[in-house]
Write a structure and sequence with these properties.
By secondary structure, the chain is mostly helical. About 75% of the residues lie in helices and about 0% in strands. It is elongated, with a radius of gyration of 17 Å.
Length: about 170
């Protein structure tokens, strides 16, 4: 069972999720607290700035996606991840309101916490399948942040992508 701090953090992230869906990244701390059903003091106990909240929300979304695909076979994991990114409600909200943020999110930089987590997860999936090509897969996945696709197109992409990935070294 989660403790009070974990429950508060989860409520804050849920509030941030709702605020971003409604307002893009131009959210206020008051909106996050109100939508999360927590006092502003509770919010500030967890996060000092709006940017801190957004960074934590991004990592939470990445962790959710990674845990969803971690145990799938490589083709299914890649397809599921690409569909999830293409259909992600937060990215859809940003697409209509904040394309600059989308462009920043789509820039693959494994030195950042988010892309670092994605890179480790992709590397594990590829290694388990006896494949290499993490940078190629990361660039492919990032493309769906800017240019979402439907499931059929993604399935075709996965077939082409897998045919070009090298064997693990």
């Amino acid at each position: 069972m989660a403790g009070p701090m974990a429950r508060s953090r989860a409520a804050i992230l849920d509030g941030a999720r709702a605020a971003v869906e409604a307002n893009g990244t131009k959210i206020t701390m008051a909106q996050v607290a109100a939508r999360g059903g927590v006092a502003k003091a509770t919010l500030y106990n967890h996060f000092r700035t709006r940017e801190d909240v957004l960074a934590a929300l991004l990592l939470d979304e990445i962790d959710r996606l990674v845990s969803t695909v971690a145990d799938l076979e490589l083709p299914q994991a890649l397809a599921s991840a690409a569909v999830a990114v293409s259909e992600h409600p937060l990215l859809e909200a940003l697409g209509g309101q904040d394309t600059t943020t989308l462009a920043v999110l789509a820039r693959v930089d494994v030195r950042t916490p988010g892309w670092g987590r994605v890179a480790r997860a992709v590397e594990q999936l590829l290694r388990r399948a006896g494949r290499g090509g993490t940078p190629t897969v990361l660039r492919w996945l990032s493309s769906f942040i800017i240019a979402p696709a439907d499931e059929l197109d993604i399935a075709a992409d996965v077939t082409v992508l897998l045919s070009g990935l090298p064997a693990a070294r």
